[in-house]
Every structure is written in structure tokens, then in C-alpha cells.
Design a protein that fits this description.
Structural class: alpha+beta
Order of helices and strands: HHHEEEHHHHEEHE
Low-confidence stretches: 125-133, 214-220
Mean pLDDT: 86
Helix content: 25-40%
Number of helices: 8
CATH architecture of the largest domain: 2-Layer Sandwich
Shape: globular
Amino acid sequence: MRLVIEKRIPVAAGMAGGSADAAAALRLAARTSGLADDALLRDIAAGLGADVPAQVRPARYLATGAGERLEPVPEPPPFGVLVLRCAAALSTAAVFAEADRQGLGRDGAELAQLTDAVRAAVAGEPGGPGAAGGRPFLPPELAVNDLEPAARALCPPVADALEAARAAGARQALLCGSGPTVLGLFVDLPSARGAAVALGGREPRPLAVAPWPARAEAPA
């Protein structure tokens, strides 16, 4: 198979675009071969990268382990996402090395406790809004990217982007992956679009997007 990729996710942005491409390639290979074994695809995906298994059939998951243990969680009601890209580049390896230097790791007991807290937070309420009553936003103490201090130390514009997203009205602002992209989460897409317009003087230009529809089949 020869694949031609038209990128719609910013390159080297910490947004798992390469992982999404890898998962799409697996889906195409499975479709071409007639293979209908998602468990096998996820096993292969786990050997390609930590973010790839969740992209084999994109949905909302609680991912643990190295990303290979996926627990489906309720889909939230629609919300908007402000994407603030950065002209600077960050090496993933450098960010992890800086995180190690700063001692940002967590022990197993703390991770287990946080996992239970996230599971409870995203469960939603019976009869609540959204496709399955899921909540779109985590409590602030759980909406944390542990790599943020390391990314900020290596790339000061990350801090500026986080502050800009919050000032534009984001309910939550987070570093995406190992950076340098910052995401601002809004209650709906029009609010995210308004923030993108308000921050239109930034370079690269901000983007406003909505999550992929709940349980939709990702395009191959």
C-alpha cells in the first residue's frame, strides 16, 4: 500500500497527529485485507506508540498503562476547543528529560488514586446532558498535564499561550502532550470561535474546532 497523508493537525505540535496517522494506516490495512479484529489492531498499535491504540477506533477513553489499556467513558455534550499553536518547536525527548530533572513523576499509589478520581469525574450523572451524560470538563485539580512545568521551562511562549487562552474565556487551558500547543476548552464552539477571533493577531493564527462526533467512525 502507498499512503498519501494530507495533514490537518499541526505538525510537531504535541497533538498526537502522527499517532492518528498510524492508526488510520492500520484501519486502511485492515479494510484492504478484510481483517476485522480490533483487538489485534490495538496490539499492533501498542507497539507503534503510546497514543496509537486509542486512535484505532477514536472515542473518549480513560487510558492507563502506556496508553494500551483503554476504558471507554461516557461521551460529553458538544464543546469547543481553541487551539493556540506556537512558532517555536519542542523536542519530546527534551521535555521528558526536563521533567525528570524537575522530579515531576508520580508514584503508583498516587496514579491509582488519580485514575479513580478521573473515572468518577467523567462518569456524569444519570439522565444528564450529552450523548451518555458524560461531563465535558474535569475538576481543575484533575485537569493537569504533568509535563507543563518542563515545557514552560524550555519554551516560555507556552506560559503566554496558557494565559491568553484563560484571558479569552477558556474554562480550562492545558498544554497538549509535550507541547508546545495549548488548548483552551469552551462550553461551545461559538465561544471558541469568538476567542479565536479575539486572539487573531497571534502567529500562528488560532484555530477553533469541535471534537469528533460521539462514537463516529473516523474516516480512513
